[in-house]
Design goal:
Largest sheet: 6 strands, antiparallel
Strand content: 25-35%
Radius of gyration: 19 Å
Number of strands: 10
CATH architecture of the largest domain: 2-Layer Sandwich
Oligomer: single chain
Strand order of the largest sheet: 9-8-5-6-7-10
Number of domains: 2
């Protein structure tokens, strides 16, 4: 069994999925190539969301366009919020444009930020959807999160993933405010905070094992609600 966890592996595995499975005993749990390409390119993700009828921050086509500040800038393809910044004025925008490779400029949306863990079987059937409120973040990685069974988020993400047709464990990032739900990005892989959802009872690893053993799983929400999880560094001294 091969489960991709690093972004640079995703395209290679998706392109060679059939070859790997035919030449080895491995079963590659990864979405089809078209899904991976949509998720890895933030501009394509935005276009997909708009075409599918979901709200997402406006993408500015160029720095010459009339931009409302504050705005947000990030790489077209990136992860862990590396080189992703809130921009307060035109001077800051020009500075960030010089250090970010293939930047994408978006409308800045405020609200509660959620990461949603979704697990689907090999036929794109959704098995679990777990929203996690991002309470504390460091370097783009969640350090403290709360499991929240928000029905509006769950129903919206269910519709989104049904249109996307993803396979395996993916993470959907969104912001919820009084105006609604705004999707930020989709990562077609395990995220750093996935153990929080797994510990709450939505165990993607166990579900994958059951599927490989021949079980037919159905959608369920039997994970524990309102639990708060913290991640921490463990320093090891070698004398």
């Amino acid at each position: 069994m091969i489960i991709p966890t690093i972004d640079t592996e995703l395209l290679v595995l998706a392109k060679n999925k059939e070859l790997i499975e035919q030449s080895t005993d491995a079963k590659v749990m990864i979405s089809n190539l078209d899904v991976i390409e949509i998720c890895r390119d933030k501009k394509l993700t935005s276009e997909f969301l708009i075409d599918a009828g979901f709200s997402t921050p406006k993408v500015y086509d160029s720095i010459d366009e009339t931009i409302s500040f504050p705005t947000f800038i990030k790489p077209k393809s990136g992860s862990s919020s590396i080189n992703a910044f809130k921009v307060n004025n035109p001077m800051e925008l020009k500075a960030y444009m010089t250090i970010i490779d293939q930047p994408i400029i978006q409308e800045f949306v405020e609200g509660e930020e959620y990461t949603v863990d979704v697990f689907s079987d090999f036929n794109c059937k959704i098995i679990t959807i777990v929203p996690r409120l991002r309470i504390q973040v460091r370097g783009g990685e969640i350090m403290k999160g709360k499991i929240v069974k928000n029905k509006d988020i769950i129903e919206s993400v269910f519709r989104l993933v049904t249109k996307l047709n993803s396979i395996g464990h993916i993470t959907v990032q969104l912001i919820k405010n009084k105006e609604g739900i705004f999707y930020i990005e989709i990562n077609p892989r395990f995220g750093g905070g996935a153990p929080m959802s797994i510990m709450s009872g939505a165990n993607s690893c166990k579900n994958l094992f059951l599927i490989l053993m021949g079980s037919k799983l159905s959608y369920k929400e039997d994970y524990i609600d309102n639990q708060i999880y913290s991640r921490f560094d463990n320093s090891i001294c070698i004398d």
